[in-house]
Write a structure and sequence with these properties.
homodimer, about 270 residues, mainly beta, Porin, 13-stranded antiparallel sheet, globular
Chain lengths: ~270, ~270
Amino acid sequence: MRPATHPFDQALTFEALGEGRFLGRTHPGYANMVGPFGGVTAAQMLHAVMLHPERLGEPAALNVNFCAAVADGAFEIHAQAVRTNRSTQHWCLSMYQGDEVVITATAVTANRRSTLRAQDAGMPPVLSAEQVPPMSGKPPVAWIERYDIRYVQGALPANWDDSDSGDSHSLVWMADSQSRPLDLQSLTAYADVFFPRLWLRRARRVPIGTVSMGVYFHATAQDLAACAGGFVLGSARAQVMHDGFQDQTGVLWSADGRCLASTHQTMYYRE
Amino acid sequence: MRPATHPFDQALTFEALGEGRFLGRTHPGYANMVGPFGGVTAAQMLHAVMLHPERLGEPAALNVNFCAAVADGAFEIHAQAVRTNRSTQHWCLSMYQGDEVVITATAVTANRRSTLRAQDAGMPPVLSAEQVPPMSGKPPVAWIERYDIRYVQGALPANWDDSDSGDSHSLVWMADSQSRPLDLQSLTAYADVFFPRLWLRRARRVPIGTVSMGVYFHATAQDLAACAGGFVLGSARAQVMHDGFQDQTGVLWSADGRCLASTHQTMYYRE
């Protein structure tokens, strides 16, 4: 096997230790302010399921809990299929650094059967990615350079003046800076690309981090192939922020309007 | 301790076996078509955290995975605090029947500090619960009798004629039929009171069941006390349904418009 050349594939390069244990490392290209970008950590948890020899079907749901700051360096993911049904399978996962649990996750994989499709979450009419300028004022963290991010609406505040914008909704085109075919792992990372909704709503840059995030996967193999490394549109908004926690609900669409994933998370902040 | 008289409190009556293990039973008053109403099962998982002597703070997030049909009768919940930080704590939980895992869950509890509050998810203008008639055509299952359910919008289809309604959005008032003060356990059950969105969107009653559901808790003790056993307004819609899975995103408000919880789930169906 040739070494991976794309940083995301490098981040997903694990050594299988047997019995559902995988040895990986944080990737400096996806470093955040402290520790790695949570989207890549979530993708790494999913990737352990994808690599597991007992996996049945494709991911339908993933929930990741950020228990502690992941330290730069090595980690071990333990993945266990706790229940295998005829067409669905339930996974429990933990990421360890030394003896410490830093991440927990659950996942559901399934053999999906073709049914009629109905999509209530229509993609809003927006300018194409090519018509929107790349994000300016990127925070000085490595991971954000791995993505081509173009805010259609709800960009980072130009002035951190504590003014209440009254709205936490963003619409944003996103793609890997270095082109890479879309898969469910990279889609998982995309689901965490949105900056904290509180920063937008309150024009106040407080320390904030994801505590728990989930992704429901809707993209078919055909949907992923059709994206072919192009832009995905994301929508995210908070529903409420109070007493140190802020929720977020979001959707990711292909450029032709297919809902690829829905996502939700809750973040912890200090004022 | 006197025996509980409210069926929900009876459903939450556990015997503590020590080391985070709790023995409980399904409650016939919350029986569904097969096994118990998932909302009560989710509440039972949360309740094990609430009873745990090592718990820090109050619930902020809960995610529950329905791995297999819960059989009527006894179960054992194992709750473990896998990580305790200064102000947050991470839980992993499993429900066993015999040697089989039937439910897994993760939860986050936290000591919350007072911050400014911002609420993007405003309660839509609706008739008060008193102005809306109780749900008609209730399916013949026990659990639904435990709730006073009043659909403002998006009620069960009157005709199961496979017509596409084009919309899966419901607004519904809900309360315990036998009045009971609201707590985070009953709020968890409320988050699962919505009937499957596919039934509404497609006017087709297919077999369907929740695979994974999550609740982010926003209600303060004061919010819960203010509800005082009254009605809560729920909003739920699917974003996409295809190839055997349907997602759902929802919000629960107090009658005076405070966002008490946000919720999301994915359901498995057969056509």
